[in-house]
Structure formats: C-alpha cells, structure tokens
Amino acid sequence: MKENFNGREEVTKDDGSFSRRRFLNGFGGSGIFAGMMGAAGADEPPRDQRGKVIPGFEKTKQEPRVVTDWHPVSERKIKVGIAGYGLCKFGAAFYYQNHPNVEVVAATDLDPQRCAALAKAVGAKKTYPSCEEMIQDQSLEAIYIATDAPSHARLAIMALEHDKHVCSAVPAVFGFQAVDEAERLFRAVQQSGMKYMMNETSTFHADLYAKRVQYQSGALGKIIYSEGEYWHDGVGVLGSYNPKNGRIDEFGWRRALPPMWYPTHATAYYVSVTGGRFTEVSGLGTESAYPVYREAENQYENLFGTEIAMLKTKEGGISRMGVSWDMKDAHGEQGRVYGQKSHDQKIDGSRPPLPMGVEGGGHGGSHGQLTNDFIESILLDRPPIVDIGDALNMTLSGVIAHQSALKGGEWMRIPQYD
Fold first, then answer.
1. Inside any domain, residue 379
2. N- or C-end of the chain: fewer Cβ atoms within 10 A?
3. Cβ within 8 Å of residue 331, ≥6 positions away
4. Domain that includes residue 39, residue range
C-alpha cells in the first residue's frame, strides 16, 4: 500500500495476477474508464461534440418534501467501492457518498488522475488501479460499476463471485457476447445469493414510476400497448473508451454502436412498469447518415443509426420500442403506457422520499432514487427495483431486436430469465 499523489492510500500488489492496467500498459496507453471525449467542470453538465448537454444531465426540478418523510430502515452503513469516472462522472453522480447508510471505502479508475478525482469526489480513502483489484478488497460489501459498457457483465460476475452485491450501469450485457454473458451473469447471481441491480434511470422517471404504482395496484388491468423511446443524436460518433490503446478517443466502443445494443432507457417503459417480460421481437433498422457506419472496418458490422422494435409481451400485449442516434429534433427518454382501464387519479404515484443530502439528480430525478433502492434492498434483504430478471429482459430484447433487424424483421424469441 502506498500514498498516491493526492495523499490517499493506493492498494497495489505484485503477485503476477491479471489486471486491465497490466493489459493496457502492454499497449503503452493510459487507461481510462468509460466516458466521452473532453471534460466538464465539477459544476458543469457533460456535453457532446456540438456543445449540447448530454440527454439526462439537464437540471431537474427537485420534488418538494418534508425532512421527516424519509425514515432509515437501519443504522448500518454498507461499505461500497465505486468504479469509473469518465466525462459523465457517473461514479460520483448517484449520491452514494451522501447516503446515510453508505460508507464509500474505495474508488477506482484506470486513469490515475480520474481515479484520484473520483476518490476526492466520493470521499474514498483507498484507491485501486483497476476494478478487478478493488473487487478483491474483502472489506467491501457492494460494488457500483460505472465503467465502459463492454465490461459491465464481466466485472459484475467477478464481483458476485467475490460475494459482493452489485449495482451496474446499463446495459447489463453487451454486444455479440450478450446472450452468453446473460447466462453467466444470471448463474452468478443465483449461486452467490447477492443482490444485483441494473441502474436503469427510466425506472424512476416520474411518469414511469406513477404508471408502475397504477399497474401494481391493479388500476390499469392488462397493458395492451406501451411505447418507449431513447433518442440521442450522435452517440455512434462520440468518443469512448478504446481497449486497444487504453484511451478515450473516437475509435472506442461507441463508434458505430448498434442502437438496440443500448435499449434499456426505452424498454424500461414496459418492464419496469409491469415487472413483465418481452417474449418475441421483430426489429427494423435504417442506415445511419454518419460516415463511420459505412467504414470498411466497422467494428460491429453495423449500418443502422436508428432501430425500431415491435415486441410481444407475456401478458398478451404489444410494445413499440425505439432507439436512434440520428434524429436531429428528437431528444431524451420518454414513453407511454396504456392498459385495459383508465389511469386512476386518486392513486398517489409519487416517488419515494429520499434522505437529506441525496437528491433525485440527473435523468429526470432518478439517480438518488436508484441508489436508495439498491442500498435498502441490501438492508431489507429484498429484490432491488431492477433485479437480474428485469435487467436481462430489458437488455436482451434490444440485442435480439438488432439480430432481427439484420434478418429483415424476422420474429425471434427472447431468452427468458426469472
């Protein structure tokens, strides 16, 4: 253990074991966790290449509340390690450091400067050169994974195998390996008995949460039709973590990204309302106008900048879910949910109160809600609001939709996990 340049403890080891830092050093690169090119000031929202605020980071009007609304379910503090501090600064953006039932013990990012900044932002006394090394810290009870999308499942599985509760950024699984990752991640959750939650922000959007309460009270009956949309122009050309050199550049994992590999902001508008499942999907795509999608060495062999999916649900309804990186006048996450019965205005669908110091935050006031739900799921030994079954159905429905789009819209079955 040694002191880093910020005077914090840095845990190092030299036992020959593999870490991503050693892998990246082999390329001579400086590693950085997920995030986009550029940097934002501590009080400034992250922006895209056009200087626009990235969807989800607009200032959110906080809901009025009374100090006594929130009551702790325990006096215990969960010892948490946080991984990842890219442009969006997700490692510090979900208020773990402010929650009265959390002690942020450790922080990690592959880039030393970002690692130190994350540790300072969340008050962590220990830093680690990689998430893999932090996971082996036996004092930690839970890991929050805010790293690059291709690493989510692998790191979550490793943490679960080390008896850590896991909260992961979206998506739960990724890319060509998603179906195989889903099987292994589901098995790791089952065998470990630990909590797993995917940090899907749409789940705690005010409109979605209100519909969730309506549905669970029986007010809506069966959901006949639902829609979810995630419109975010230019994602496929944004900078992102590049494993070939360990840097954030224009050739990272986001380059020419298939839209439906990042579907959960949309698919939550059915799964998080009902807890139900998509069973079959037919997907279509349109070619992107961005030149990177037509490159000879397109890493995903993907031409689509917009993908739309029609999905059948287990309860006999149908959904339309769309993701686009191309549309100039479309923005953010939104959805609509329609049941057999009308919305009951007498039912209070307000989101739960939060402890003082924990704000709703970005993505429609969802950040603090997700953290509070995850921590309380551990303290109360109950399923988190987006558990492994929900996380995999939200994610795989998009992955299979992309496969369908490549086959001209062929109906395909979605793997089921419960």
1. no
2. N
3. 55, 231, 232, 233
4. 22-201
Which pLDDT band holds residue 62 (cuts at 50, 70, 90)? Answer: low
Residue 20 dihedral angles phi and psi, to the nearest 5°: -65, -30
Cα three-residue angle 334-340-343, rounded to 5 degrees? 55
The residue out of 178, 201, 224 marking a domain boundary is: 201
Give the type of residue at 204: F
The model's confidence at residue 159, banded by pLDDT at 50, 70 and 90, is very high
Q: Do residues 113 and 157 both lie within one domain?
A: yes
Q: How far apart are CA 288 and CA 305, in angstroms?
A: 4
Share of the chain above pLDDT 90, in %: 77
Residue 81: both structure tokens together? 């390690």
Same-domain check for residues 65 and 179: yes
CA 72 to chain centre: 26
List the single range of 7-11, 154-158, 213-217 with lowest mean pLDDT.
7-11
Express the helix, strand and coil content of the chain in percent, nearest 5 each: 35, 20, 45
For 300-317, the pLDDT digits (tens) are 999 999 999 999 999 999
What's the maximum distance between 2 C-alpha atoms anywhere in the chain? 63
> What pLDDT score was predicted for residue 49?
56
Nearest-angstrom CA–CA distance, 135 and 96: 17
151 φ, ψ to 5°? -95, -10
Ranges 47-61, 84-98, 263-277, most confident: 263-277
The model carries a pTM of 0.87
Cα(first)–Cα(last) distance of the chain, in Å?
Answer: 42
139 or 40, which is more confident? 139
Distance CA 193, CA 244 (A): 35
Give the pLDDT score at 418: 87
Tell me if residue 370 falls in helix, strand or coil: helix
Q: Are 160 and 206 found together in one domain?
A: no
Question: In this structure, what are the phi and psi dihedrals at residue 229, rounded to the nearest 5 degrees?
Answer: -140, 135
Average pLDDT over residues 34-41: 34
One domain for residues 155 and 209: no
Dist. CA 345–CA 398, nearest whole Å: 33
Q: Which residue has the tokens 């005010």?
A: 206
Residue holding tokens 């409109």? 207
